[in-house]
Amino acid sequence: MAAKLKKGDKVVVLAGKDKGKEGEISSVDPKSGKAIIDGVNVAVRHTRQSQTDQGGRVPTAMPVQLSNLALLDGNGKATRVGFRMEDGNKVRFAKSTGETV
Question: What is the pTM of this model?
Fold first, then answer.
């Protein structure tokens, strides 16, 4: 199945502790059905000190289920994603506005 959400898309979180937060997708793992969004679902990870790194508490963005994300359309509202053919190419479009993503 084609990817409805891709790296670089602006999304909003629909469920969970970060509900309502917006961000940009930095990476997607289609096999597990999860994505990492900058500044969303942040957890503190402790790293050991090394010769090159001071170590300490490092905030890290953790993965979020793709089903808990929605694409932001041109108006800044959550929308579903559909597919259609334009000039022989399969493109994604926002179902709320009908504009191509």
Answer: 0.84
